[in-house]
Task: inverse folding
């Protein structure tokens, strides 16, 4: 039996082939993927993952949020499982690796342990969380949020996509409502391996990011009410222009984020104009502000300032303004023992590494509420993600998976 410290590595070719096979499901329009949560493509991706898990000797269980848990038993019947998780859903114009790398590396860890004859004391569970992306149904990390007790199950089921379809109905439609109660499981530890989705590791020429923290976020959905009117015949001083109010708020968010440097970001990624016609001033505008920081005081301070200044902007224009927080989690500090296990695994393998703070949200952020948790990152080309051009190399992918294998075996015990 191979013990940690000997030549214990994953099968890089098999991991890469699995990534390429999954990427065939829900192809995008520019070489990436559109496998949004609870679509037919998501259902097809789940089926393939299930087949692979069962072929690897794992047993699948699904909870009421549709989250998939594939278990490889341990040798100690009383030991709590070590979890490896991430997501198979993508953005509408997503890459092939965001989330998918973490799930399929979990699978590869199991396949490699099978090949190497490694039996762990603790069971190992590979997890595919439902709706990590939040592109179709806000908030992001919805299923892990329910799992951690931070989001109500009924609230999750009631979330609507832009066509008005609910999460609950769509989960039923694709046939993935499981029997298991959400959050009933206890975890010995949780690991998530993910591409960085930013430029730091590549710029620093490091193979592995040892993730110590994740920044917190607020998603604020603004609904502005103006008056629909003819863009040609309505005098400038007689307009109640919700679009103008939105433009001023977008600029203000940029200013607030810039004035909170370093360590804060803020922007607007989604906007809906109604009626969205060239020659009608919009009567209604809905858009979402996304602000993030690893510093709790800065994060909450930015939110308060943005809401106050938005109210002033709208008042000056006679535009109605309401705000709903549709996504939130606090900054996270990952478990020091697991962080050290990741660092040691990278060192034992001779991989270059550095500490890093996750800029993106991950299911690990909710898992950290209920279990010791941490993450591993690999670089991605040009820091590009949430873009179909997202790219990594086979060597980057397998280096992180090697670290994951080693850290999981160390934590699960042999
Ligand atoms: C989720 O993918 C996020 O970080 O926005
Ligand atoms: Mn992701
Ligand atoms: Mn993502
Ligand atoms: Mn994410």
Result:
């Amino acid at each position: 039996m191979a013990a940690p410290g000997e030549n214990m590595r994953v099968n890089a070719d098999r991991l890469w082939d699995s990534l390429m096979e999954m990427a065939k499901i829900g192809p995008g329009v520019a070489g990436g993927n559109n496998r949004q949560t609870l679509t037919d493509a998501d259902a097809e991706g789940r089926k393939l993952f299930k087949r692979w898990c069962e072929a690897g000797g794992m047993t699948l269980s699904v909870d009421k949020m549709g989250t998939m848990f594939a278990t490889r038993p341990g040798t100690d019947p009383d030991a709590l499982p070590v979890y490896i998780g991430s997501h198979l859903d993508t953005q509408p114009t997503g890459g092939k690796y965001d989330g998918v790398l973490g799930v399929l590396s979990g699978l590869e860890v199991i396949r490699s342990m099978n090949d190497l004859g490694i039996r762990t004391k603790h069971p190992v569970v590979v997890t595919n969380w439902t709706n990590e992306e939040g592109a179709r149904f806000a908030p992001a990390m919805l299923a892990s949020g329910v799992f951690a007790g931070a989001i109500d199950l009924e609230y999750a089921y009631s979330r609507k996509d832009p066509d008005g379809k609910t999460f609950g109905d769509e989960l039923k439609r694709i046939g993935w409502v499981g029997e298991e109660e959400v959050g009933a499981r206890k975890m010995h530890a949780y690991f998530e391996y993910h591409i960085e989705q930013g430029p730091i590791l590549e710029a620093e020429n490091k193979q592995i990011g040892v993730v110590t923290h994740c920044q917190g976020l607020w998603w604020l959905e603004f609904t502005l009410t103006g008056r629909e009117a003819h863009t040609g015949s309505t005098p400038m001083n007689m307009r109640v222009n919700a679009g103008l109010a939105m433009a001023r708020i977008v600029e203000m968010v940029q200013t607030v984020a810039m004035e909170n440097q370093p360590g804060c970001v803020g922007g607007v990624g989604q906007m809906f104009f109604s009626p969205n016609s060239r020659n009608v001033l919009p009567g209604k505008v809905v858009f979402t502000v996304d602000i993030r920081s690893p510093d709790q005081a800065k994060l909450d301070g930015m939110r308060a300032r943005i809401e106050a200044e938005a109210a002033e902007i709208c008042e000056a224009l006679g535009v109605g303004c309401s705000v709903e927080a549709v996504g939130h989690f606090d900054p996270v500090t990952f478990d020091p023992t697991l962080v050290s296990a990741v660092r040691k695994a990278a060192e034992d393998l001779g991989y270059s590494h550095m500490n890093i703070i996750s800029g993106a949200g991950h299911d690990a952020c909710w898992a950290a509420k209920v279990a010791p948790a941490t993450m591993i990152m690999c670089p991605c080309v040009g820091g590009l993600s949430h873009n179909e051009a997202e790219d990594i190399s086979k060597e980057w992918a397998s280096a992180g998976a090697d670290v994951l294998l080693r850290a999981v075996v160390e934590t699960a015990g042999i």
